[in-house]
Specification:
Structural class: alpha+beta
Strand content: 15-25%
Radius of gyration: 28 Å
Largest sheet: 4 strands, antiparallel
Number of domains: 2
Order of helices and strands: HHHEEEHEEEEEEE
Mean pLDDT: 75
Helix content: 10-25%
Shape: globular
Low-confidence stretches: 20-51, 179-200
Number of helices: 4
Number of strands: 10
Distance between the termini: 96 Å
Length: 200
């Protein structure tokens, strides 16, 4: 005991103050390690919960008919230029019409046919959701859920259409294309005509 007191007496004050702090930190670390479940790190638990979620494709009833959206109500489109299970939209096209990512498990909701859902691998290695063989896209001009400002747009050399639960393109006008998002607010697209949605 005398030896401990003599060692403490010779230590500089900052070291003496640091000993209780170091003890408290060590006790906290030991306590949190003891509460972790055996065989799993906290990071593994958080990534496991993320992997249980995935892309949801559902439906919305609009004035042009029932069309596909994602789980948060964002409208998805098909592009007439694409081949079956093949995307021809990249670069500036993909910036204006972002591919619908296929993350986790693809889930069908509403009147979506689960058997029609699929994925393709894009040139960069990312997965894109498809429906009945059509690669699916969002439109940057849609300002909120169920907006259809991209309907009938002629961008990058072909038309963009809403997708029916049958997998067919919907070519009729939809009233939501201008609801809350005037056509003039839609971004101008290179090589586009009727960006707000004229389809003659």
């Amino acid at each position: 005991m005398k030896m401990i007191h003599s060692l403490l007496a010779r230590m500089p004050v900052p070291v003496k103050l640091g000993i209780p702090l170091a003890s408290a930190l060590l006790a906290t670390a030991c306590g949190s390690a003891a509460t972790a479940s055996p065989g799993s790190a906290p990071a593994a638990g958080s990534s496991a919960s993320a992997s249980t979620t995935g892309t949801v494709i559902t439906t919305h009833a609009g004035s042009a008919g029932t069309f596909l959206t994602d789980g948060s109500g964002r409208t998805v489109y098909l592009w007439a230029k694409d081949g079956m299970n093949m995307s021809d939209c990249s670069g500036a096209c993909a910036a204006a019409w972002p591919p619908v990512p296929a993350t986790g498990k693809l889930t069908a909701s509403g009147s979506v046919k689960a058997s029609a859902l699929g994925t393709i691998t894009r040139s960069g290695g990312t997965k894109q959701a498809t429906y009945d063989g059509h690669p699916l896209y969002y439109f940057v001009g849609d300002s909120g859920p169920d907006q259809t400002a991209g309907q009938g747009s002629d961008n990058f050399g072909a038309k963009w259409w809403l997708v029916a639960p049958s997998g067919a393109r919907i070519t009729a006008a939809d009233a939501a294309s201008t609801a809350g998002a005037p056509a003039s607010s839609a971004p101008a697209m290179p090589g586009s005509s009727n960006a707000g949605g004229g389809w003659s």
